[in-house]
Amino acid sequence: MQEELFTSGRNIPNIDPSLEVWHWPISVYLFLGGLAAGILLFAGVITILGKDKEYPTTVKYASMVPPIALTLGLLALVYDLTNPLYTWQLYTTIRLESPMSWGAWVLLVTTPLSFLWVFSYFSELFPKWNLRFDFLKTFMKFLKRNRKNMAYALVPLSIILGVYTGILLSAFNARPLWNNAILGPLFLTSGLSTGAATIILLAKTAKERHLFSKIDLALIIIELGLIVHMLMGMYAGSQVQLDAMNLLIGGEFTLMFFGFVVILGLIIPGILEALEIKGYKVPVAIPAILVLIGGLIFRFVMVEAGQLTRYLY
Amino acid sequence: MRYAMVIDTLKCVGCSDCVVACQTENNVPIGYCRDWITETVNGAYPNIELELKSERCNHCENAPCVRCCPTGASHIIDGGIVLVTPNECIGCGACIESCPYDARYQHPDGYVDKCTFCHHRLEKGQLPACVSVCPTKCMYFGDLDNPNSEVSKLLKNRKYKTLAPEAGTKPHVYYLI
């Protein structure tokens, strides 16, 4: 038996008794960032393939979500800083070893690009809205001509953004739950899946809905596989990783993780989407909303449970 | 130059003098601390073992906090001391998440704060505040690159351990056991 306690008294806010430095804004940002990355990636790929006329929701209507999501996400990130007036310090340096520095720079490029993307569709999205100034119309036409170039930039940027939400956590070797290499792909897959779910919710044609139901189903299967890999990796790991796994399996996060993320957020929507693809009448909003809620809860579980795990000495 | 601290767990009585000295010397806000005492009890009665340790930032050679810092506010200066520049720190908490020792905290003024090995005292040729007040003289401070320094000799002759070496941080606070 080993028991350790602080005899000098130590009760630092947010650190003791267990780490709580990152609060809900981080989870919300990870969700919104992943969702935005998903939609932007799909919009970019469809534009590059030249199918933007066939799938208008993805490139046009759903693309209004990423600028809003990224703006809200960035506000959430800044809200969680304790020294927010110094945020500009992020942009005085590039630190290749720090995932957060990567994220800050990628967001600095991707967020304006997502606004420009929507603006290139402005006259189609809001036909009655007359742009007063000629230079705005010229700018819009310029963006329209360069839509494919923007798509070429968006694809790698959105993949980095999606992976970043996971790498941000997995770079901390002090938190055994986060410190596994699969978290980057897992968060990317989950982000793409929530992006596909948003497109399903907004889609106007059955063709587009079906395509994204198929994509989402594939992503759900990949995500379940990655979750199994993550748990297996921890199961075969050291004591600290076993302790981390026990939080998710048979610990205080079991209900949240298995009930709301794995069953309600992945398995049930996966079955419903499979039924829908087979031709059964299923209101597609149900699996899509379940995927979105599951994705959000997944971020909350990972951020909160991860901060409970630590090295023992 | 490679500063290191050596703490004799066999001599430490856990009086917390180092903690109070640090709080006074460095104006640590009330309720916070840069160093602390842990009491570890191993085994069950009657086979019981007690270990007292004064813990603080380990000024790691492979410091994860410096690696994760997005602005470069966390940095390593001559002598291997890990420091935070307050007006470069945005308070994102990445360094706190990355520290296996929970040695950092968010100062009420917003920036992240931690043990500095009292580098302002070292510049004047004085010992860190905690070391200088220790009543049992269980704490030693010095240069590991100098084979004749007190810390080098102690580590050569005594059994010692570091905290969570499996985290790969190469800590530079050593505990004699």
UniProtKB/TrEMBL annotation, chain A:
Membrane topology recorded in Swiss-Prot or TrEMBL: Multi-pass membrane protein
Name used for this protein in its record: Nitrite reductase
Assigned protein family: Belongs to the NrfD family.
Subcellular localization(s) per the UniProt record: Cell membrane
A cellular component term, taken from the record's GO annotations: plasma membrane
Chief subcellular location: membrane
Alphabetized Pfam families for the sequence: NrfD
Keyword vocabulary terms for this entry: Cell membrane, Membrane, Transmembrane, Transmembrane helix
Entry-linked Gene3D superfamilies: Formate dehydrogenase/DMSO reductase domain (1.20.1630.10)
UniProt cross-references to InterPro entries, sorted A to Z: Electron_transfer_protein (IPR052049), NrfD-like (IPR005614)
Residues passing through the membrane, by range: 26-49, 61-82, 102-122, 150-169, 181-203, 215-235, 247-272, 284-303
Automatic annotation (TrEMBL), chain B:
A GO MF label: metal ion binding
SUPFAM superfamilies named in the record: 4Fe-4S ferredoxins (SSF54862)
Gene3D superfamilies reported for this sequence: 3.30.70.20
Keywords in alphabetical order: 4Fe-4S, Iron, Iron-sulfur, Metal-binding
Pfam families: Fer4_11
Residues annotated as domain 4Fe-4S ferredoxin-type: 3-32, 48-79, 80-109
Protein name from the UniProt record: 4Fe-4S dicluster domain-containing protein
Organism: Seonamhaeicola maritimus
